[in-house]
Amino acid sequence: MSALSFDPTQVFEALAMQPVDSEGFDAAVVEGGGDTLHCVFLWGKDCYNCNLFKQAALLHQQALRQLDLKWFQADVYQDVALGRRFALHGVPTFVFYRRGKRLGRITGWPGLPQFQAAVAKLQAEA
Per-residue pLDDT for 45 more than 70? Predict the structure, then answer.
């Protein structure tokens, strides 16, 4: 599968990623809590590395669903304020929240095993 042979927005549907923006971020992600770990995928249109994640996510969607994350997504090329909020130096970036607290972030797509390990560590610290 080449980097351009798929619709990059398919991953949003596949993982039930809810769109967020700078105006509604706190209400949706931070205050929309519970015990479920929230993962915000910050990306940019035509970002090669973002598309690598999207492609990998489509190939490994079952494994990513098994992580029991509530997914959100935002194009920070379009929503510059949200990118500034997290002082992004690159995308993709994944930011994690639980019960209103920011727990950490991953910059870049490290690959499925490393992503799974990072999520497992955050979930174990609950």
Answer: yes
